[in-house]
Amino acid sequence: MLTAYNRFRLGLTPQRILSVVFIVVLGYLVIVPLFMMLRETFIVHPLERFQIPGSKVGDLTTAHWTRTLFSENAYAFFYRPLLNTLKIAFGMSFLALAIGALLAWLVVRTDMPMKNLIANSAIIPYIMPSWTLSLAWISIFKNQRIGGDKGIFSALTGIETADWFAYGMFPIIITLSLHYFPFGFMLIGGALRNIDAQLEESAELLGASRTTILRRIVMPLALPAIFSTFLLTFSRGLGTFGTPAFLGGPVREFVLSTSLYANLIGQRPGIGYIAAVAMILLGILVLYMDHKIIGTRRSFVTISGKGARAGLVGLGRWRWPVAIGVVAFILGCIAVPIFALAIDTVMLRPGVYSWDNFTWHYWVGDASLTVGLGTGEPGILMNSQLMAALGNTMKLAVVVAVITGILGVLVGYAIVRMRGSWISQALDQMSFLPYLMPSIALGAIFLAMFAVPRGPIPSLHGSFWLLVIVCTVSYLPYAVKAGVSAIRQIGPELEEAALMAGASWWTRMRRVLIPVQKSTYFSGMLLPFISVTRELSLVILLVTPATQLATTITLRYTDRGWYPYTNGMVLLLIIIVITSTVVSRRLMGTNIAKGLGG
Amino acid sequence: MPAIVLEGVSRLYGSKVRAVDDLSLEIPDGSFTTLLGPSGCGKTTTLRMIAGLDSPTFGTIRIGDKVAFSLEEAKSLPPSKRGLGLVFQSYALWPHLTVAKNIAFGLEVQKVGKAEIAKRLEQVATALQINTLLDRYTSELSGGQQQRVAIARVLVMEPSVLLLDEPLSNLDATLRMDMRAELKRLHSETGATIIYVTHDQLEALTMSTHLALLQNGALQQFAPPLEVYAHPANEFAADFLGNPRINLIEGRIEGGHILCGGFNLTLPAGMDPGAPGAVKLGLRAEEMRLHRQAGPGMVRVRVTSVLPTGSDWYYQVRMNHQTLTIRQNATPHLSEGDEVFLEACLDSLKVFGASGKALAMSASVGDSA
Questions:
Q1: Is the separation of the CB atoms in A471 and A539 below 8 Å?
Q2: Which H or E run includes B317?
Q3: Regarding beta strands B288-291 and B339-344, do their DSSP bridges make them parallel or antiparallel, or are they unpaired?
Q4: Is residue A324 domain-resident?
Q5: Are A595 and A579 in contact (CB under 8 A)?
Q6: Which residues in chain B are contacts of A496 at CB distance < 8 A?
Q7: Cα–Cα distance for residue pair A287/B112, rounded to 1 Å
Q8: CATH numeric code, B4-233
């Protein structure tokens, strides 16, 4: 008994204490919301009692599940959005993978010129908010039947775009894959780069042709990266909200995330959360497949390349045409949407693309009910509401980036140093859970959890800190991933050497662990920063007029059809995001790809 | 007083894995003690427990006159309070600091004054001949230089005991030879106790004054290295030390004679033949000679391969169903396929009973066979 107690006392190391604290905190912020979500699907909510005869608010019921899964409306409510979600996820994952893999192969394995330019700019479509492209699509291709005004394309060519082309599944899949192809480019490019050249050289010596080597050696070796890219993109496709909201909304084409939002807004949380549960289950399925298919084969690509760089495939006279085509494609993904958005902000009357329609009104004009759209709103830069929202976004982004950065390091430290124990596994899995939760549902649950005072925590309804907490939890998976990989690279001896020298835990952190991997930590912070600036679904239910963010206020303007304001705000966000990425890369050597990977 | 005492130290991982099993050891003050064993034998774990980076599951560790770890007293001295210096296998130099900063780190943490730090840095850098490297980052150093910096970083703290965890394993062969001599010099100059972990028996033999041989977490033998070489306590010790490996020839003891292969040796007086059963005779490669002509006690064998190394000739011969390795630096030079005669000329008799333990004999007859 005494020895057991002594053993416990001697075992109180900083990493153990940290781990236990994190388990408690994460348990409250991650596990509790998960159970609350599940519980909501079995409970009668205020407006729902009229649909379920003889029920009182708070009763337990299975009515939501039977209605969602088996009623005559089930198809419209649930199965169609589910099918749409799967269609989008599959379609855009394949397309994004194909584009990304092709680019990666061209950059890593051929003698295509302008590689640096291509490699550096290929990441930008991912940095921009995913719905930038969808707004740009609307600007260019909208038609008068649904969009009200003509898009740029129709105005220039006189051709009226078809509905299926302007809205719905087709543009959703296209724009999402143009947003997500950088995943494949980075992950597959990394895998191709890591393949030991000797493996290819030995195949070559045995008489294999270039195509045989590509097909039988390179492809199988890159397969784990290809699979994990697919699954990563797929899981993003499951939860994506902005794009289907902008492009699917006008034609009432729902996916799980937008139907969840519609149900929560429409006071039908019971049904809404079932969509959330379905999304979580799909996410778990993806994770399971990831584990089954590549779990054991992941190590393929980590073979270190000692041999010389493998010979590059000569493109011959196609070198320049291919390079120019690729550059045009990437610039198209970046410049065309930006240009399209920009044009719409300087056209006084929407849909009329001529010089005499040019105006700075939507940027710097005074409030007016007669000029242009007659919104009664001052121009974007003069608009105190919009500027306040932008300020809130910046404040939130910085605070969340710093907090998640610190948490990522500490949780990563606890996970790596406790490796092999159940605590490490529990922390690892708990910090990953938010990745699976649809962000709208997460936002809704946090609203429910923190709307009223609970124990020592005051009511956070409408407060800035509620946004901070929900964003921190939501981006924790990325931060922890960055933290784990950073600490794992350090190796315990570097810390132990400091321990031997008599450095306290805090000194070791401050003088060894943090400075050694500075740029990795900053990379880990950059992703949450960028994510916050474009976050929409997570915070949409949580903001109040005082805490409006640039994105949420943008959505309100979109609802009213005030696209010049929407597009202007998105442009500002893009400028901020790209500038901060470039600046932090220059100053801190951060690399956005480092924070990704999962 | 011994520098370090381990009493019944065990380290369990989970309930099954015993990394270190009931280890008791007294490391003499001023000794160069090597913990030797194959990978996974618990030697690094032992070193880490001495350093305070790991804690025993059972047992007590004393360093000098202090109790460093005791479960009963709920006491575990922090590593920095144990007066030890540890050189890691990977050197663990901090890549974000210069050589000078790496060496000065410990002194800075201990709040030593600037002037004093500069003085001690100068001293240790001179002693290890790294004065010119002080402003460099560690990534700009060669393996041997990194090694010196790692040692300097530890020596500057003036530890009473120096712990070295396979410090030479990352160096190339020639550099390793130089560093061996240098470490030996370091030992005699500082007079510090050194505990050295390695799986390389040659390092153990060449450098240490004491050798603790470990297998599966348990101590096999603790003695000066040449003593272990000449009188291994068991088959494992005999097999692990020496290159090429010792030849173990199966046989039996009958009527005061050791009958192994074709050899017939007299069992020395005072040696306990142990339980009846199979025994193994240990013959090192240099304890046998090959002759073209037959002589008394010799066994007829056939040469299966000839491996000249320049200074020595290694022969492999077939005796009954066993292959034996013999080292010889004198004539005759034989060729593959030759039928020759093998003579045993033992420096010390090494016979192992069925349990693997060496047959016990009184010290007086130890070297006479």
A1: yes
A2: strand B313-319
A3: antiparallel
A4: no
A5: no
A6: 53, 79, 86, 88, 92
A7: 53
A8: 3.40.50.300
H-run or E-run covering B35: strand B32-36
Q: What is the mean pLDDT of residues B235-248?
A: 92
ipTM of this model? 0.82
Same domain, yes or no, for A214 and A73? yes
Interface of B with A (CB under 8 A): 51, 53, 55, 71-74, 76, 78-81, 84-86, 88-90, 92-96, 105-106, 109-110, 153-154, 157
Looking at the fold, whether A99 and A19 belong to one and the same domain comes out as no
pLDDT score at B80: 87
Residue predicted with more confidence, B173 or B364: B173
Per-residue burial over A81-107, b = 16 or more CB atoms within 10 Å of its CB, e = otherwise:
bbebbbebbebbbebbbebbbebbbbb
**At residue A205, what is the residue type?**
L
Q: Indicate the domain borders of chain B.
A: 4-233, 244-365
Residue (of A282, A577, A551) closest to A443 by Cα position: A551
Q: What is the largest CA-CA distance in chain A?
A: 89
C-alpha distances in angstroms, B328 versus A572, B142, B238, B313, B343? 84, 39, 20, 5, 12
What is the mean predicted confidence (pLDDT) over B310-316? 89
Of B51, B76, B90, the CB nearest to A500: B51
pLDDT band at A300 (very low <50, low <70, confident <90, very high): very low
CATH of the domain at A189: 1.10.3720.10
State yes or no: cis peptide before A224, omega within 30 of 0.
no
Is A407 found in the same domain as A537?
yes
Asked if the structure places residue A497 within a domain, the reply is yes
Same domain, A184 and A97: yes
Q: Which of A547, A568, A587 is the last residue of a domain?
A: A547
Q: Between chains, do A494 and B106 touch, taking CB under 8 Å as contact?
A: no
Establish if A488 belongs to a structural domain: yes
Distinct helix (H) and strand (E) counts, chain B: 8, 21
Between CA A289 and CA A255 the distance in angstroms is 22
Distance from CA of B32 to the nearest CA of A (A): 21
Facing residue for B106 by CB, picked from A10, A496, A502:
A502
Model confidence pLDDT, tens digit, residues A169-202? 899 999 999 988 988 888 888 778 777 777 777 7
The whole-angstrom separation of Cα A321 and Cα B220 is 72
Number of independent structural domains in chain A: 2
> Which one of A287, A304, A321 terminates a domain?
A304
> What fold is seen in the domain B244-365?
OB fold (Dihydrolipoamide Acetyltransferase, E2P) (2.40.50)
The answer to whether the beta carbons of residues B163 and B47 sit under 8 Å apart is: yes
- Domain with A270 in it: 65-115+126-304
Token look-up 């609203």 returns: A447
Interval B40-45 mean pLDDT: 91
Nearest by CB to residue A499, choosing from B71, B79, B85, is B79
Residue B126 is encoded by which pair of tokens? 């001179």
Q: How far apart are CA A371 and CA A592, in angstroms?
A: 43
Tell me the pLDDT tens digit for each residue of A253-262. Answer: 888 888 888 8
What's the rounded Cα separation, in Å, for the pair A145 and B313?
A: 96
A91 occurs within a structural domain: yes
